[in-house]
Structures are given as C-alpha cells and as structure tokens.
User: Fold this.
Amino acid sequence: MMESWRWYGPLDKITLPEIRQTGATGIVTALHEIPYGEVWEQAAIEERRDMIAAEGMVWNVAESLPIHENIKRGEGDLEPLFDNYRTSMENMAAAGIHTICYNFMPLLDWTRTDLQSPVKGGGTCLRFEAHRMAAFEIHMLGRDAARDDYPADVLEKAAEWFAPSTKADQDDLLKSIMSGLPGAYDRYDIDGLRTALARYDGIGRAELRENYRRFLEEVIPTAERLGMRLCVHPDDPPRDILGLPRIVSSEDDLAWIMEAVDSVANGITLCSGSLGANPINDVPAIAKRFADRIHFVHLRNVRKDADGSFEEAAHLEGDTDMVALSRVLLDEQNRRTAEGRADAILPFRPDHGHELLTDIGRGTFPGYPVIGRMRGLAEIRGVLHALSAG
Ligand code: DNO
Assistant:
C-alpha cells in the first residue's frame, strides 16, 4: 500500500520536507483555498502538484473535491455546479491525479466535542462526548427535538454540564464542533447554524439519497471516461446529527451507494475510524464486502463507550482489529496486482493522531499533528510489512 500523508497545502504548519522524513511518499491534499462549487483551474492544480514533486513526493489523492451544499439540498439550478465539478475532474485528470475523495455529509464534516482530551500517559486526542453534543443541541441551539435522539442518562448529564457552564465553556464547545472543516468553509455561530439547519427542513433520508443519486449520475460517467476513481468518505460520526440525515454511515448505506451507480469509478474511501465509531459496523467485514470498490484508505482507531461517546485511540489500539483489516486490504491489492491493474496499489494515510511531544502547542490542524500521525504511520507500516512477509 502506498504510504501517504494529508497536507493542507501552504496553510499547513507542517512542511513538505518534514513530511518527507516520515517516510510517506504520497501527498493527499486539496486546493483548500478555493470556495466550494468553484472550478479548480488546471494551472493551480499543476502548481501544487509541482510543489509536491519538487520535494520528492507525489500528489496521489485529492481530498476533498467538496460538493456544494445546493447539490446536497437539491436546491436551485444545479447544472453549473455539476459542470464545475466535472471541469475540476477533467483538470485533475490532465494533471495526472485520478483519485478523488469527497463526502456527502450535510452541512458539517467530522464533528467532535473535545479537541484536546487527555490521553493516559500524556498527550491529547479528539473526543466525541454524547452529553456535550446533547447539551449543544438542546441547551445552546434550542433544538428541542434532539431530546428524542439521546437516552435519558445522557440528557441528564447534558443538563448538568450546561447549568454551571460559562460563556467561555460554551464558546469552546461551539468551536470544537465547528472545527471539522479545513480550508475554504463556512463556520457558523449559533444563529448562523440555526439558519443553515433551517435550509435542510424537509430533507430527510430519502430526499438526501435522491440528491446523492443525482450527483453520482451526473459525475460518474465523466470519471469513467477519464479513468478516475471517486471515493466517498463515510460520515463522522456515523449517525444523524443536529437532526440532519446521514446516509453514508453503515454497511447498508454503502451497499445502496454502490448499487445506485454500479461502476468501479463509484468507490469508497475506507475510513476505519469513521465506520468504526458505529457499533453495528464490523470494519474488516465491510472492507471485505466492498473490497473491489475501495480506492483510498484512512487508517485510525476509536474506542467506543456505551452511551455513544467515543475517542480516538492509538492506531493499533481501540475497537477495530487493524491487523485483520490490513489483511483484507493486502488481499485485495494482491488480487488487483494479479490482474495487472493500474490501480492495484492502494493509497492509505494514517488518519488523525494524538498530539504528542513537540506536537503540543504547535497549533497544527486538530487531529493532524506530525508526531502523533508519524507514530500511527510507523505502527501501521510494521503491520503491513509483517503481513506482507508472512
Ligand atoms: C477528517 C477527514 C474528513 C475527510 C472528508 C472527506 O479528518 O477524514 O474531513 O477529509 O470528509 O471529504
């Protein structure tokens, strides 16, 4: 598998020469400065690609080419947005980049309530605490319907957290919840979020699925023609949030997507951390079932609590059997290699990492410090080497 590393471009405090020292050779990045829905021009793509090549690495995956909210809501004249998406794909293909990761989460990308939760032994991790999310939804946002989404004990703890909370505590929680959107994005305050949520009124699971199907029908034929692979990233956390439907959370969801447009170009980003946060998901089994449609892999682990909370564990700890998962991925790679396929080698990146040692205080993007991810990469590298030799 090709060791890769997410880099946020010139916005990132971690430099390309530093990344080179981790041993990764693939760079996963995006033109984060371009607003959602606008075209990625070929010159800008090539400039970024060449910047990476000059440091001896290769831009192997675009993560993400984001989907405009109007497409997710199925609102307004979508033709120009689909055209722009296809044009960006053409420009990426012309620059030699053939794998595109995206997500179909309404409004928010990954969501955590705590960006610096202490880890035993030192360092910090990202955490999703059910009662803090409930406190945010019910007491800060005033979304009363959220009471139906949480068990009684979580609701009680939410009220207990909120009652003595200060404005600073609440601002901190809002900031954590809004942190999942790197690059060009909309961050909301409470009023802004209420307005943005209202625009999703009337959009349930079925409607969102139909909007997603339309997107796939619009772009997958272009991907096929260009020899590109689109790969959807699962929802994180893999459950409805803020009353918004989530449709990329489970094995059944993935099966629906794969059938909606049955093409190798319509693929999956196998994110073990996102899928692993849903107790009904058996991640190695899901990887096995959809192996021929996996085009990109995020490896990380989570440790779940009974109340729906979870935190990011070290890469080989936590609830997902990373060795079993690696075995499935290597088997798929071997199968493709035997077929002589150009896309046999799967790009993967260590996803998220704890903030450790000199990461602390460096101010890198939440979840994306250098030492914590390098630790994860090194551990996974060991597993892959051992399994490949065995
Ligand atoms: C979190 C990431 C996600 C991912 C997007 C893909 O760290 O894995 O933000 O990049 O959802 O579109």
About this structure: Residues 184 and 291 are 32 Å apart (CA to CA). The two ends are 16 Å apart (CA to CA). The chain has a mean pLDDT of 96. Residues 63-64, 101-103, 109-110, 180, 233, 271, 298, 351-352, 367 surround D-mannose (CB under 6 Å).
